[in-house]
Amino acid sequence: MKNIFHLKKAAFIFCALTCCYNSTASSQQDDYSVTATVSTEFNPMSSSWYTNPWPESDIPRRLEQLTPSVITQLGQTSGTLLEVDPSTTYQTLLGLGASLEHTTVYAIRKNKTAEQQKEVLRSLIDPVQGMGMNFFRVSIGTSDFADGTRATPAPDNAKGWYSYQDTPTLPFSIARDESLGIIETIRMAVEVGVETNNELKILASPWSPPRWMREGDNMVGGGPLKADMLDDYAAYLRKFVEAYQAQGIPIYALSMQNERQFEPGTYPGMVITWQMERDLLIEVYENFHNIDGNYGPELDVKLWTLDHNFDYWQQAKLQLDSFKAMGKDHYVDATAFHHYGGVSENMGQLHDAHPDKDVVFTEGTIWGLSSDGNKRSYEALIRHFRNWATGYLSWVTMTTQTLNEANQGPYNGLGAFDPTLLVKYDGDNANWYKTPEYWLMSQFSKYLKPGAVRIESNYGSLQTVTNVAFLNPDGYVVLIVANSTNGVQQFDVVSEGNQFNASVPARSIATYRWKAGLGQSPHPWQAPPELPQFPYAENSIEIPGLVEAEYYDLGGAGAAYADASTGNNGGALRADDVDIEANANGYHIGWLDAGEWLEYSVNVNQGQSFDVLIASASAGGGGQFHFEVNGEAVSPILVTPATGGWKTFVSTLHSGLQLNAGEQVLRLVIDGGEFNIDSFHIVPAGSVEPPVQEDICEEATVSILAGKIQAESYCLASGIQTENTSDQGGGENIGWIDAGDSVDYGVSVTNAGSYTLNLRVASQNGGGEIALSVGDTVLANVQIPGTGGWQNWQTISVPVQLSAGYQQLHFGFINGGLNINWFEFVETDNPTDPTDPTDPAAELEEGAYSIINEASGKALDVSGVSTSNSANVHQWAYGGGLNQQWIAQYVSGNTFELVSLNSGSCLDADSGSDNAHQWACQGNTNQQWVIEGQSDGTYVIRTKTGNEVLEVQGGSANNGANVRTASSVNNNRQKWRFNDIE
Q1: Best CA proximity match to 84, nearest among 478, 488, 521, 465
Q2: SS3 (DSSP) at 134
Q3: CA 819, CA 741: separation in Å to the nearest integer?
Q4: Residue 530 pLDDT
Q5: Which is higher by pLDDT, 620 or 572?
Q6: 406 inside domain
Q7: Sequence-ordered list of residues with C-beta below 8 angstroms from that of 695, at least 6 positions apart, any chain
Q8: Ramachandran angles phi, psi of 333, nearest 5°
Q9: Which residue among 302, 444, 695, 963 is the one 20 to 30 A from 474 at the CA level?
Q10: pLDDT at residue 25 above 90?
Q11: Vertex 187 angle, CA 186 and 191, to 5°
Q12: Are residues 830 and 862 in the same domain?
């Protein structure tokens, strides 16, 4: 009951917030009113939505109606400001929707009467009682979410993959679609659209031509389309359109090939070049429009290209350039995009190159408000629209709880596919349920109408709120606002000389509607009354537990906090006077002064004595604080240590906090400044051991030597500061170095012996001096020359002797007046040119790569296109598959995580063997790889946890040869090339 209680309490608190400001709205509801609804995420991506689903009533908000806001005359604004301008317009909306592929159709139909099936479809299509979807995608023949083994006649493929014409001599037939209920369900959807005055548009996409049209005579792994089959395939696509039209299903648009740069090994797919797709588009257009032939009646069907990931936008640009050069740019109407590679902004880049062509988002599944770093969340939908998307299609609308019941593809198990909008209960019943994603998507699809035009608004930020705005054909503005943060966000909206105030709860999307073009409001602006104090994340923080410093209560100055300066000096997360700054782990509070305080609503499970493990940072130490409840001190004054830097956070244990049981407000009072707070963990007294401060550098990210270290990647520092560098490669350097300052780095030296230390330095006048030491042993004294400027960079070198194993390098600055960008240690028996700015190790940046073995020329490949933990990694001839594409994700120095674009999992050195496999990314050191550039442009990929490197076992050139870690022998089977994915 506790969780339900807190949900109800959170709802009450949020209502208090929104209704407090809008208390006069009920008596002023006129044209100058703003109506709004809100939906909130709930356990996004959890497999429990299939195995043990929560009741829909547990979802915190489901299109919850908010009290109307009053549009007033312009007045004061504070904090986050959204400016909406209906006079500046962008793209026209085609629609929003999802897919009606076979897995979805099966779930819609299972155990249901025709009327019960229509009820499901109305929940999707009806603009009043349902989501208001008007746009659907169907497959031409089979897709990977299908079970053709249930079809009649039986396909000749064991998994049921089928086309409409098995051999050239057999007649074209959609009988299998009919036998699976696909035709009836899509036709029923069209009828529901007519009945609810919401006409549907249908996009059709093929996963593969018939096998006999492909070079390898197979729908799976069959190679490209035969060059002499373009006209046959165009005729085949005409027959599809005509057959569906004869069944009462008009096709609005057609793409030529689903994901034309990916040929999977376990289900239909095909790789064709942009040139072949162009030639096919020409054949299809001229067939459909009876140009130079007698093909049949003219077909008014839009033709779309690409139907693949954002990062292939440049191929689409080349193709559109080619059409224009041929005088046939009218042959193509739009470019279709998926989100499995690249970013939304790629659509905007293509629009800028060809502004007369639409871009449409046609496949992807999203969850909650921050999935995959917001790349696959409902906030991303806002960015798609802000980058010129005219439509949005979610992929796979409904499944059964048993995911492989009607799905022969590889994504048919828990963990391989996350919750759909709708789910059919298992068993011999007709029951089904809606997941939170149904409601989150409804915040878009229910309110945005076909023909709506996107209008100007400022984006906002992920630290506050983001938004997109449209003007519907009925003259109403629709503003969709996403809050991806963990706390309620307040904001002001200014539009056409008027304004209103609103709030969005944590992890929620709200939609606001008001009439455009009203002129000045008759309602004068009034300062909003003081808001009630309540928890930032809506629920009180449980004690014992972790308290993030930036999660202090809402309620404003004097109620939830006191801060000596106006405005947020750090500029991050929250729009009030508390100074919040971003750091590597999230956020911290800084610029603390004596007399400031912060309050946190907490719920103490049991009254007792507590210890406080506080994560603080300070260049000089001496910060002081204590805790209070109801104006009474409940702890002594506690003191924070020097940690060597303002972002070098160290946890220290403090005792003496005494709290009673129950709900209460805990005040953190600053007694002396000069420190930053990241978090404090309140634990029962004596339950944890104090951290050992000498282990700070060893517990931090450790760099492997030989190798390069970025100067800003220190573990301890005193006196120095960081700044942006103009040196090659960008990033930061350390500077403002004075005599007596210092900086430390934790390193692990692979081999004892002689090394050259290369230092990348800049100095206006020279005269700086560094004493490099480990413990009491001085390794070198380094004199710094003048380089003629603070960003005029030069590499200097000195010899040093290093012992093997872990050690803490200490740079003690005897004299200051210098900047350092990076340094590296090179074994003297394998030197590199320290002055060469094109060092390949320095060139490797975060990005998407294929990783090719130097000996075999084969790609690093996740076996079987698997998304599962422990899936083996081997080599295979590169074919452009997502399982052969990797994101190099920066950790520190020259250390990266290598993340599979297909699964999102990390390349992992198996702790129980020397094998390499993939595993869900957890930030462990066995998932961190030191990427060492070689003089020939290749890289050695070294384990973070030992002295082994990634290699192809035995140096085999065969597909499927295993990839493992082994001792370095410095040959080509242990070298790799990182090729940019274009």
Answers
A1: 478
A2: coil
A3: 12
A4: 66
A5: 572
A6: yes
A7: none
A8: -100, -30
A9: 302
A10: no
A11: 115
A12: no
User: Structural domain of residue 886, as residue ranges?
Assistant: 843-980
Burial readout 933-964 (b: 16 or more C-beta within 10 A, e: otherwise): bbeeebbbbbbbbeebbbbbbeebeeeebbbb
Closest Cα partner for 119 from 422, 449, 443?
Answer: 422
Cα(677)–Cα(565) distance, integer angstroms: 17
Instruction: Count CB atoms within 10 A of the CB of residue 509.
Output: 32
- Tell me, yes or no, whether 728 and 660 share the same domain: no
Same domain, 819 and 912: no
As beta bridge partners, residue 617 has: 676
Burial class (CB in 10 A: 0-12, 13-18, 19+), 204: buried
Q: E strands of 702-741, at which residues?
A: 703-705, 707-710, 716-718, 721-724, 732-735
Residue 625 sits in the same domain as residue 727 = no
Three-state secondary structure call for residue 239: helix
CATH of the domain at 957: 2.80.10.50
In tens, the pLDDT along 914-969 reads 889 998 777 778 888 989 888 778 899 998 866 689 999 888 888 889 999 988 87
Q: Strands, E, within 731-868: which ranges?
A: 732-735, 742-749, 753-763, 768-774, 777-784, 789-802, 805-815, 819-827, 847-853, 859-862
38-96 pLDDT per residue, tens: 999 999 999 999 999 999 999 999 999 998 999 999 998 877 899 999 999 999 999 99
CB 682 within 8 A of CB 627: no
Residues found in the chain: 982
pLDDT tens-place string over residues 435-458: 999 999 999 999 999 999 999 999
478: enclosing H helix or E strand: strand 476-483
970 burial type by CB count under 10 A (0-12 exposed, 13-18 middle, 19+ buried): exposed
User: Which residue has tokens 């400031």?
Assistant: 596
Which of 640, 661, 686 delimits the end of a domain? Answer: 686
Phi, psi of 318 (to 5 degrees): -60, -40
Count of domains observed in the chain:
4
Asked if residue 748 and residue 732 are part of one domain, the reply reads yes
489-495/80-92 β-pairing: parallel
Q: Give residue-wise pLDDT tens across range 511-537.
A: 999 999 999 999 999 887 666 888 998
The pLDDT assigned to 499 comes to 96
Angstrom distance (rounded) from CA 862 to CA 881: 10
What string of DSSP letters covers 638-658? EEPPP-SEEEEEEEEEEEEEE
C-alpha to C-alpha distance for 133 and 122, rounded to whole angstroms? 9
**Pairing outcome for strands 389-393 and 95-99:** parallel
Tell me the two tokens of residue 600.
């946190």
Q: Return d(Cα 732, Cα 710) in angstroms, integer.
A: 8
Instruction: State the average pLDDT for the chain.
Output: 89
